[in-house]
Amino acid sequence: MSDLVLYSTQQDVAVITVNNPPVNALSPGVPEGIAEGLAKAAADETVKAVVLIGGGRSFIAGADIKEFGKVTSGEKKREGGLHPLLYALEDSVKPVVAAIHGQAFGGGLEVAMACAYRVAVAAANVGQPEVKLGIIPGAAGTQRLPRLVGVAKAVEMCQFGDPVKVPVAAKLGLIDRVIERDLLEGALAYAREVAAAPVMKVRERNEKLGTAEENAPIFSAAREAAKKRQRQLMAPLAAIAAVEAATTMPFAEGVKEEARLFAECLFSTQSKAMIHVFFGERTVAKIPNVPKETVTYPIKRAAVIGAGTMGGGIAMNYANAGIPVLLKETSQEALDRGMKTISRNYAGSVAKRRFTQQAMDERMARITPQLTYDGFDEADIIVEAVFEGMALKKEIFAALDGIAKSDCILASNTSTLSIDEIASATKRPQMVIGHHFFSPANVMRLLEIVRGRETSKEVIATSMGLAKALGKIGVLVGNCRGFVGNRMFGPYRREAQFLVEEGAAIEAVDKAMYDFGMAMGPLQVGDLAGLDVGWRIRKEFQHLEAAGVRKPLLEDRLCEMGRYGQKTGAGWYKYDENRRPNLDPVVEDLIGQVRAAAGITPRAVDEAEVTDRLLYALANEGARILEEGMALRSVDIDIIYLNGYGFPAHRGGPMFYADTVGLDKVLARVREFHAQHGPLWKPAPLLERLAGEGKTFAQFDRAAAAGA
Ligand code: 3HC
Ligand code: NAI
Predict the structure, then answer these.
(1) What is the mean pLDDT of residues 600-605?
(2) Whether 610 contacts 624, CB under 8 Å
(3) Which of 4, 50, 348, 475 is buried deepest, with most CB atoms within 10 A?
(4) Which residue ranges have their beta carbon within 6 Å of ligand 1?
(5) CA–CA separation, 90 vs 86, rounded Å?
(6) CATH number of the domain enclosing 687
């Protein structure tokens, strides 16, 4: 047998151990190895039962996701999948006991469900997470699961893909025994208990499949929920249909229907995008010149300066992660306001039952509000989140240089200012880094980690690890204006405004992007974030603007009217007491005046122009960022957009989306816009090069990785 699966006997029980680190995915060789072990056990007369267990940190985390790309690219044929192994397990005369720790996910759970019994440690998780990859269970998960847990729960597990903890799974009938102590010992004992008992094959158990009348409301409610919570996604609907097939067809037919739906999903762009995102989220942690072994600083105490919108949220992140944090302000009033907001946010979570009152009290107790730098000399990290102004930031960093211990990380949450210039106010620029959180900082998953010219590898490695500890996804970016996310967001929002100036209706622009899959349209986002933020930045950077280049006109005018967005009750839209946006004739008038003053004759703008202008503005700027090395890979840009800007996962991110359109087509459109609208649309040289070579951004990433 190969090393991927080990076989041994413990007296009268055979033990088959999957040994494919790190997560025991069902890579080529693993199913074959299990089948071989099963055959050995069948042939050994002294063996009465079999235990199937995972070595290392989990049982089996599912199919090997890397293999899917080989199938869809045509490099590999998809053969019978896992079914032959599953039938062999289920038909084994000697009962097979799956012994689960860590995860039994996807194909892993499907293997376990074909076994006669399943035992597990309480800390393990089971689930069918395939929908999160844009596919559905492909090895009869949608057929065996309802036979074990009933239709409603099976639909929920396959539709949403969330893990289920073992104690819950045991109540559902998915786990036969929870093992308190050593898993293998417990599984062996269980195997001996059941060795002689008759076994009912899961595929033959129909008692939980319900009647058509009982099931109809379950499926219609699931489809309704998919419409609301899983907008545009095809896999959840396919998963529901596949479970439905289990209730209307014999097992073998249901398996065929599942296979048909699985293939439909697997070959879809949605699934390719979501698999790109799965690997992308892991790729961003890999930084070519910061090896995995880089020493990191322990972060046990934190301090935050500024208890405003961002500082308060950042402090909450530390408190949530169990790290005590000092929170400094300049006035008692600002401090009280900040603490009140934090307390209100926590109370909201308690009301929504996200955590208990006790957990809230513990979190609040970890935040120490203060007006001085007391205790800052003991902090392992200090995060500055004061007003956006270079002079103030430099003054603060100079002060910190005199207070902080030598191995304390000094982070700035600036959204536009140069980390190098901020670092120059200290004598330790190697300890200075950008930690660019996104608003609301306690909610948004993205953390842009901005590397300064002199930031040390240790500080970068610590920041990346810290992001994970805070429940964020950290993406390393270079020190340029707006870093990666906001630098691209500028052209995106600029085009949205230009389109309105040119004749598009406000709501048509927002609707086009919402229909594309964005969480919100670009003008609504402006209203949510505050139009004044960009207005202030534009004023600060006015001296950098090139003469003769078209500038958006409307948002400055809205700000001059005091329309900052939701915070003032009006911006692009007027907001009612429930924060619902309504069109406002005042803005229509303003648009008319601005068009007239600029000599623009309004024209019809169709939906395709809106999506192309906005999405290619992102891709074109993204290509520049990539070429300048401000993002390590195109997938890093995609992960930033998914986690910080509401870009839909099933589109894979702006760079992946451009790849799916075809870079030649994207370039052709960019050239068209360049001819129509001038220098802002100058094609990025990298886009021209890749399109010319018939390549994709993904190929650029692979070539860069190979060269690293
Ligand atoms: N296939 C291939 N590689 C996998 C994998 C899988 N199913 N699951 C994890 N990996 C890889 C990761 O890419 C990562 O690689 P890297 O170190 O090179 O970056 C490594 O294993 C470790 O993974 P994580 O960093 O994610 O480790 P964690 O401990 O944080 O999480 C986990 C472990 C919870 C198992 C998580 O990896 C996970 O959720 N994996 C995916 C599970 C899944 O979706 N399974 C269903 C697959 S589809 C299927 O089974 C179809 C079937 O129905 C036929
Ligand atoms: P804010 O105005 O809500 O809060 C800033 C706070 O800093 C105020 O409460 C102020 O009293 C306090 N402060 C000023 N000087 C101080 C000092 N010397 N010591 C202690 N406290 C001081 O501003 P906001 O929005 O929280 O922004 C803070 C930083 O975060 C800025 O650099 C901004 O660019 C950045 N940022 C803002 C985002 C947003 O969406 N608001 C998103 C990401 C970054």
Answers:
(1) 97
(2) no
(3) 475
(4) 22-23, 25, 61-66, 103, 105-107, 110, 129-130, 133, 137-139, 141, 282
(5) 6
(6) 1.10.1040.50
Domain assignment present for 274: no
306 lines ligand 2 (CB under 6 A): yes
Residue 534 has pLDDT above 90, yes or no: no
Model pLDDT, residue 367: 98
pLDDT at position 1:
62
For every residue of 408-427, DSSP letters joined together read: -EEEE--SSS-HHHHHTTSS
pTM of the full structure: 0.96
The arithmetic mean of pLDDT across residues 91-106, rounded, is 98
Which tens digits make up the pLDDT trace of 658-698?
A: 999 999 999 999 999 999 999 999 999 999 999 999 999 99
pLDDT value for 546: 80
Question: Ligand 2 in contact with 369 (CB < 6 A)?
Answer: no
Tokens of 504: 């598009």
Atom of ligand 1 nearest to the CA of 285: 19
Q: How many CB atoms lie within 10 A of CB 590?
A: 17
What CATH number does residue 437 fall under? 3.40.50.720
For residue 319, being part of any structural domain is answered with yes
Whole-number Å distance, alpha carbon 100 to ligand 1 midpoint, is 16
Nearest bound ligand to the CA of residue 438: 2
d(CA 449, CA 439): 15
**Helices (H) and strands (E) in the chain — how many of each?**
30, 19
Q: Which residues are tagged catalytic? A: 110, 130
Confidence tier at 327 by pLDDT (50, 70, 90): very high
Using the CB atoms, write b or e for 355-375: b if 16+ within 10 Å: eeeeebeebeebbebeeebee
Please give the Cα distance from 293 to 484 (Å, whole number): 27
Asked whether residue 277 is assigned to any structural domain, the reply reads: no
Q: Note the pLDDT of residue 348.
A: 95
Other CB atoms within a 10 A radius of the CB of residue 196 amount to 9
State whether residue 377 is helix, strand or coil: helix
Q: Is the predicted pLDDT of residue 73 greater than 70, yes or no?
A: yes
Tell whether ligand 2 has an atom less than 6 A from the beta carbon of residue 413: yes
Residue 83 lies in a domain: yes
The DSSP element (H or E) to which 369 belongs, if any, is strand 367-370
Peptide bond into 522 cis (omega under 30): no
The two three-digit tokens of residue 654, written as one number: 């702006």
* Domain membership of residue 376 as a residue range: 302-477
Q: What is the pLDDT of residues 559-598, one digit of tens each?
A: 999 999 999 999 999 999 888 999 999 999 999 999 999 9
CB of residue 446 inside a 6 A radius of ligand 2: no
- Verify whether ligand 2 is closer than 6 Å to residue 386 (CB atom): yes
- Cα 23 to averaged position of ligand 1 atoms, centre (Å): 6
Choosing from 304, 305, 309 the residue with most ligand 2 atoms within 8 A of its CB, the one to mutate for a pocket test is: 309
At CA 429, angle to CA 428 and CA 430, rounded to 5? 90
Ligand 2 lined by 540 (C-beta under 6 Å): no
| 163 CA to centre of ligand 1 in angstroms | 13
Question: For residue 79, is it left (φ>0), alpha (ψ between -120 and 50) or beta?
Answer: beta
The CA distance from 315 to 338, in Å, is 10
Instruction: Report the separation in Å between the CA atom of 63 and the middle of ligand 1, taken as the mean of its atom positions.
Output: 9
